[in-house]
Design goal:
heterodimer; A: 165 residues; alpha+beta; Beta-Lactamase; 24% strand; globular; B: 116 residues; 5-stranded antiparallel β-sheet
Chain lengths: 165, 116
């Protein structure tokens, strides 16, 4: 099941999950703020994954700058049974990160192929950019909790859809 | 090793009617080496072809037919042929006029050389 905190990511994320057959997908801002997810059943897992993905992104970006003069755009990790792919996408709301986990039902090539389509769809989304209020330490936790509550149905405004297949 | 792979792949592409040949990692669906005509979407094709071959292999296995030795997809304007070994898939894109029998023989020979 897909759930989103902001409606403009719903259709592209659903299509990505349906096409690529990934087990988990998590769309976040580099700050760790969650935009949408698929496959997670507990808010605490989303919170942990978002925080860790933001940390990985910050680390590899800095490592890329050090080694290559510019930040790496994506990260792939092959585990014993599951694989992880983390990549960035430019959107009207700024850079977003997609963390995705997949097994033998998919492959890195397929995930990259459909991620390119997701990246294009997100970049072309018609979304009203809200007031660029900075994500401060003081309001980060409030924002994070609000988004998690929306994702897991504990607040008004929750949107969830069930994949067609 | 890379030069050796490239020469094997290039030799396949020189067959009449062959538009491109790729050696793809079956699990990851990414290109190990490829020679393609200009304008072909190599990474996208490699990912989908590896997925197709993998599913054919699993289907044959589930049907109790053993391993897939050669896979041929016939489309309106050409063919996609694939053969795999040791987690690698050799894929050819060919025109409708291509001699598939000859290509099959060359692919299986090439696969023996790359899968050592």
């Amino acid at each position: 099941m897909i759930s989103v905190a902001e409606p403009w990511v719903e259709a592209p994320l659903k299509r990505f999950v349906d096409d690529s057959r990934v087990t988990f997908a998590l769309l976040i801002f580099p700050s760790g703020q969650v935009l949408g997810q698929s496959g997670f059943s507990r808010a605490v897992d989303v919170m942990s994954a978002a925080a860790l993905a933001a940390g990985i992104y910050a680390t590899v970006r800095e490592l890329g700058r050090t080694l290559d003069g510019k930040g790496f755009r994506d990260v792939f990790h092959a585990g014993a049974k599951r694989r992880l792919y983390l990549a960035e996408a430019a959107t009207p709301r700024g850079t977003c990160l997609l963390l995705t986990v997949f097994d033998e039902q998919s492959s890195l090539g397929l995930v990259q192929l459909y991620f390119d389509e997701l990246r294009t769809a997100l970049a072309q989304s018609k979304v009203q950019v809200p007031d660029p209020a900075p994500m401060l330490d003081q309001n980060f936790e409030v924002e994070l909790n609000r988004n998690l509550a929306m994702l897991f149905g504990r607040a008004p405004g929750r949107r969830s859809i069930t994949p067609t297949s | 090793m890379k030069a050796n792979l490239t020469s094997i792949i290039s030799a396949l592409t020189r067959q009449r009617g062959v538009r491109g040949s790729l050696l793809v990692d079956e699990t990851d669906g990414v290109i190990i080496d490829a020679t393609l005509h200009v304008g072909m979407k190599g990474p996208a094709f490699a990912a989908l072809a590896a997925s197709l071959y993998r599913k054919a292999r699993l289907s044959a296995d589930a049907a109790g037919l053993g391993g897939v030795t050669f896979l041929r997809l016939r489309a309106t304007e050409g063919h996609v042929c694939a053969a795999g070994k040791n987690e690698m898939v050799l894929v050819i894109i060919a025109d409708a006029r291509a001699n598939i029998g000859l290509i099959r023989m060359e692919m299986l020979k090439a696969l023996e050389r790359v899968a050592i």
